[in-house]
Amino acid sequence: MTEAQSPEAFARLWSRAQAVLPGGVNSPVRSFRSVGGDPFFVARGEGAWLEDTRGRRYVDYIMSWGPLILGHASEVINEAVRAQLSRGTSYGAPTEAEVELAERLVRLVPGIEMVRLVNSGTEATMSALRVARGYTGRNRFLKFTGCYHGHADPFLVAAGSGVATLGLPNSPGVPDAAVRDTALLPFNDLDAVRDLFQREGDQFAAIFLEPVMGNAGLISPQPGFLEGLQEIARDHGALLVFDEVMTGFRVGRGGAQERFGIVPDLTTLGKVIGGGLPVGAFGGRRDIMEQVAPVGPVYQAGTLSGNPLATAAGNAQLAWLEAHDPYPALETYARRLVDGLLGILDGAGIPASGGVEGSMFGVFFHPGPVHSYEDAAAADLARFNRFHREMLERGVFLAPSAFEAGFLSVRHGEEELAHTLEAAQGAAEAVANGEA
Ligand SMILES: *Cc1c(COP(=O)(O)O)cnc(C)c1O
């Protein structure tokens, strides 16, 4: 147990952070700006729990935003990293572990015949788009409102909780020209895709999507949506690209493409495949991946790509997942959790809806159904924000945004479920009473 920080010491640390890091954080989703309330600094993680520098403990439903499916400080990962550490941290020359990780991805992910390892999901998606453009000789691509594909320029249009403004970049610093070839449509609206491709389909390099949306809350594809996209892409010579950075090894071992039985032309991965260290990957059909340098002309490179520590962690995590198949148990927990939460919210007179895909879950403060970002945007954000603060006070860490999915680990068990639902009972009553 770490020594608990005094309120004064915490205030000093928080002000030091804000003085040297924009918003005190290194990624905006870590900020508590949208929900309000006190942020915290992590002292340690253990299994399903986080402990902050003030000695408070939380059941963690973020799990580093997905990667930690074995929980915090997993011995499986630690052992693999320690073993590699004594042999060096980076070589800039090939290792067997990279081949092993690539073989594993080829074996487990239906759409991957060949793969390139990178350092983050953002690198994976920007590289996959370049390959799709290089392969087809076309520039335009379709993305869906609310899907997040990392922070590279062409994707920063209606990305996740960003404002959905057709065709305009959501961030200063992204030139209009960088998103001119980005087309935008609502998720689950197959007719809109058909219309667009009927008129201009021959200009499109790719249809790019999160097959299960996880960056606008959790939104599942409607029956027929993924099939329809595959057919439209094929008919018009565009590539179907599944961004499975979040859903890969999360909604099931072979990702959403295995769960829904739709094999895309290209796949991007990240998060779980690095076991908590920085790894991303893009892969797909052999004839497409042979466009990538040095075999083909599409350039892509990285000093730390296939990093030995990261591939050790990734290999260890994926080997464990392959051997144990924890997904049915994870999904059972997720369903009990969401059913429990929805029952409690309903009992408190708070309209809500929710869903589960493997080890991911989502609850909207919206009566549902939620099939798109446009639906999700109508959720009661003020209520969610109050609920978030009340849960945090009761030792449960939900993502500090109404537009995020929740993530489980194999270390979430009966104790954590009971603790969470008890906290939710108190939190829902506090939210309802606060409004009375
Ligand atoms: C997290 C995420 C990314 C970006 O990955 P980083 O490692 O944060 O760069 C891209 N696509 C999806 C679907 C993601 O969830």
Describe the structure.
The chain is an alpha/beta fold and about 425 residues long. The chain folds into two domains: about 5-60 and about 325-430, Alpha-Beta Complex (Aspartate Aminotransferase, domain 1); about 75-325, Aspartate Aminotransferase, domain 2. Helices cover about 40% and strands about 15% of the residues. The protein contains 14 helices and 14 strands. The strands form three sheets. The chain has a seven-stranded mixed beta sheet, with helices on both faces. A four-stranded mixed beta sheet has the order 1-2-3-13. Strands 11-12-14 form a three-stranded antiparallel beta sheet, with helices on one face. Helix 2 runs antiparallel to helix 10 (about 310-325), helix 3 (about 95-110) packs parallel to helix 10 (about 310-325) and helix 13 crosses helix 14. The longest helix has 22 residues, at about 415-435. The chain is globular. It starts with 6 loop residues before the first helix and ends with a helix. Mean pLDDT is about 95; it is low at about 160-165. The structure holds pyridoxal-5'-phosphate (PLP). Pyridoxal-5'-phosphate binds near residues 150 and 245.
